[in-house]
Amino acid sequence: MLTGLVLAGGQGRRMQGAAGSLTDASSSGVAPGPETLVQASRTGTPISRVQGPAQEKGLLQLRGLALVEHARRRLAPQVGQVLISANTHLDAYAEYGFVIPDDQILGDYSGPLAGIASALRHVATPWLMVLPVDVPLPPADLIARLCEAVSGSDAQIAYARSENGVHPLCMLLHVSLKQGLYDFLLAGERKVQFWQRQNHAVTVHFEGAAFFNINTQQDLLRAGQLDCGSA
């Protein structure tokens, strides 16, 4: 059994100058302790239009759904629980799953590995499947193929690559890596692939543009036009 994690939090998950739809941000902006898990229904609430110079990427809409909901739907059928790593807009993200802010001991906005390390404290399954919120349409067989890559081997991390490059945050990792990851971050390190190399990660090749990444308004519009057969 797996646990799923949507990486939504942090400054790197914001989109500058993007016109789009954001869930009303009722969060106070003060993150509760990492031990706090916010459970909410998955029915959602009406999406309100918010314009601003920097918008929370995971709450933008694609094909009528927030990006975080696309990621949740990709993970949910194949995992026992979906967690969401977020540090702002906590109430809005709580509409889609259990929200875990970064552990305060890791500092403010310490990168995606901090979100992963914090989530590992709450994972009861042997493996954690990670998916960035800005990769809303990954291959349907992503999880199965990453699981196959680590099955029967000593590998504790597997992540995706394609003809467009590597996708280190589309990653499956073993929970036994938690303490080592904390040590890595507390030593001031942040680079995802450096940590993965240290832990002898394996890569799995995927064809096509399934890992299309949304960084701009143009990307969001293009994603809406992509073939959703794999979604």
Average of pLDDT = 81
Hey, roughly how much beta strand do the residues contain? 15-25%
State the shape: globular
Number of helices: 7
The level-1 CATH class: Alpha Beta
How would you characterize this protein structure?
- The protein is α/β, with parallel strands linked by helices and 231 residues long.
- The protein has a single domain (2-224), classed as Alpha-Beta Complex (Spore Coat Polysaccharide Biosynthesis Protein SpsA, Chain A), CATH 3.90.550.10.
- It is 24% helix and 24% strand.
- The chain is built from seven helices and 13 strands.
- Strands 9-8-1-10-12-11-13 form a seven-stranded mixed beta sheet, with helices on both faces. Strands 2-5 form a two-stranded antiparallel ribbon.
- α3 crosses α5.
- The longest helix has 9 residues, at 67-75.
- The model is unreliable at 16-53 (pLDDT under 50).
What attributes characterize this protein structure?
single chain, alpha/beta, 231 residues
